[in-house]
Amino acid sequence: xxxxxxxxxxxxxxxxxxxxxxxxxxxxxxxxxxxxxxxxxxxxxxxxxxxxxxxxxxxxxxxxxxxxxxxxxxxxxxxxxxxxxxxxxxxxxxxxxxxxxxxxxxxxxxxxxxxxxxxxxxxxxxxxxxxxxxxxxxxxxxxxxxxxxxxxxxxxxxxxxxxxxxxxxxxxxxxxxxxxxxxxxxxxxxxxxxxxxxxxxxxxxxxxxxxxxxxxxxxxxxxxxxxxxxxxxxxxxxxxxxxxxxxxxxxxxxxxxxxxxxxxx
Length: 265
What we know:
35% of the residues lie in helices and 23% in strands. By secondary structure, the chain is α/β, with parallel strands linked by helices.
């Protein structure tokens, strides 16, 4: 599978490049950087600190290299992601997008694109996070209205969106298990006199230092409490998951795929 990585010097793009470079089932054909970056024109292996040159360029023009690839892996920004999506559709290329912070209209564009290309969207590409999502669904199905649900998520000081895309996905999974929509029952933080409304899902976002990612879901009952937590020590687990998602799309027809499909959950 021939792969293009967006933002190969970025937090995720660098790790995805490093992981893909080690895989026998993947060939990196280009990295695409935002315009104005000082590493444009260098070798992708040098730009992503792979430890060796890969013999492929870093460019700032996706259109000039897109026909060389089978799949694009994009963990860049929500603004750039829409341009990448349009080019992927225009050139008939598979796309893995792990960027978060999209609104309903933008997510609908991904679903519309999936009618023409293999499209995999994942708010979180960690295997363990997605196993956690299955556990959350199971807990809600069993305990139903016997518990209050609260989500605490922690990320680094640079993360742009809050709550995180991962915690929103967790909330959506649990809300649907309740037969509800997250938008109708989510409560974001509390201040002053604010007694808890039964049947809601509370959100609390911490941003500090260089915390990679941490999500805890609290199920509060009477006289007992269940906590399910995932901690990532670094971003390598997400990079490995992203490459697994790209590999999954090999030979797939147009459609909207998720990491649950990749993991068979």
